[in-house]
Write a structure and sequence with these properties.
The chain is built from 9 helices and 4 strands. It is of the alpha+beta class. Strand 3 and strand 4 form a beta hairpin. Helix 3 packs antiparallel against helix 5, helix 5 packs antiparallel against helix 7 and helix 5 packs antiparallel against helix 9.
């Protein structure tokens, strides 16, 4: 049975070695590498190109004085009922609506804002990607650490089982002691299998989104001191607020309506004699369209809502950072306490191992001491992970993109 368990442990060790170290030769990516790869995986380049094309089209449209397409008019009249003096009329011309100066100015102001949208959207997308990558990194890191810890625990259980089995053969220990250790070993083996599955799931998710199998050489981030003045989410909301105000100016300017200009040629034929003339027509709107007031009111509401949403989001972020600051302080205290507890547990385990070998301690007390040490080690390592994760989350909430200089 001992030989069988040794073979099981060897097999698990090989799986663990492959899972954790198969990509050891892969160069550890930087945060910037992860971000670039993530955006390629997500296909964001197409979206960014669409924003750039939209901004270019807006700029081109705003620079023109034309407010509509050019309309071509072809007109013909004939007096078929007057047989004595038949007459005919031909007319051809073109018409176009054109912008008033204030309308063109307001649209150019809007186009100037829209020209900023590709860069704003790029930073916002990178910030969202950073949040997802931070989550993937720390899930992967935690699962990797848990797998290694459970592997070490299983190795300790195997060593203890080997030792107790030899002592049973020599008559120094009872079969009951061996059964107790075997039960412990089987429990540790199950925990290892669960940890291995969790690790593989998190590694696969990380690899799918980042394009890498290896974690960055350093995953811990230095916590920032203040909210990023160029916070990508706030910058986008601020842009949307400004854009809505610019659209409000456009709607107000459009209340005056758009003048229309027509120019054409006309030929009149009476008694086989042609008379040619030039037609010039200018139509000026009176600006009394009741729909204009409704559209201005709706746009004013949209601008007010956008400004309110910006202020609300800023307050939410500030409150979130305060809460994360408190969580970080608590996590630092928990890390300090768990480290002290681990030192005591390791000392107790050393004494328990010595007492067991001398026959002064039964197997149940040794296993209990081992379990307490394992739990203390898990608590300490989890506290380390939690503190690092909270630092990353704080930087995310503060508006910093992965790899961005702070």
């Amino acid at each position: 049975m001992i030989k069988t368990k040794s073979n099981i442990l060897l097999a698990l060790g090989i799986v663990s070695l492959f899972s954790v170290s198969a990509f050891a030769d892969e160069k550890a990516p930087s945060f910037a590498d992860l971000l670039n790869s993530y955006q390629k995986q997500s296909g964001y380049e197409e979206t960014l190109n669409a924003y750039q094309q939209s901004a270019s089209a807006q700029a081109q449209s705003s620079s023109s004085w034309m407010a509509s397409d050019v309309g071509l008019t072809v007109h013909h009249e004939t007096d078929v009922f007057n047989k004595d003096l038949p007459s005919r009329n031909w007319q051809v011309g073109a018409s176009v609506d054109f912008k008033l100066p204030k309308q063109r100015d307001s649209m150019q102001k809007l186009a100037g804002l829209v020209s900023q949208s590709p860069e704003i959207e790029k930073r916002y997308s990178n910030w969202l990607a950073s949040g997802h990558l931070r989550e993937l990194i720390w899930n992967y890191k935690k699962a990797e650490q848990q797998l290694e810890l459970d592997k070490q625990t299983l190795e300790v259980s195997q060593s203890l089982l080997d030792m107790v089995s030899q002592q049973v053969q020599l008559g120094e220990r009872s079969e009951l002691d061996k059964m107790v250790v075997e039960q412990r070993y089987l429990g540790d083996e199950m925990a290892y299998q669960v940890a291995l599955t969790t690790f593989e799931n998190n590694r696969n998710a990380y690899q799918k989104w980042s394009g890498y199998s290896a974690l960055p050489s350093v995953v811990n981030e230095q916590k920032v001191a203040t909210l990023n003045p160029q916070h990508p989410e706030l910058a986008k909301l601020s842009f949307q607020s400004d854009q809505n105000m610019a659209l409000l100016d456009v709607k107000r300017a459009e209340k005056s309506g758009t003048p229309s200009f027509f120019m054409g040629l006309q030929t009149d034929q009476v008694e086989n004699q042609n008379q040619d003339s030039v037609i010039v027509e200018l139509t000026l709107p009176l600006g009394i369209n009741p729909e204009s007031d409704r559209m201005v009111a709706e746009q004013k509401l949209a601008a007010t809502q956008a400004r309110f949403h910006l202020q609300k989001k800023r307050t939410e972020i500030e409150l979130s950072l305060e809460q994360l600051e408190n969580q970080l302080n608590a996590a630092a205290q928990a890390l300090k306490a768990s480290k002290a507890k681990l030192r005591l547990a390791e000392k107790a385990l050393t004494l328990a191992n010595k007492a067991y070998r001398l026959g002064d301690l039964n197997i149940q007390i040794l296993l209990q001491t081992q379990q307490q040490t394992i739990e203390s080690r898990k608590a300490y390592l989890n506290a380390e992970i939690e503190y690092g994760r909270l630092q990353a989350e704080y930087n995310q909430q503060a508006g910093y993109i992965l790899g961005e200089k702070q």
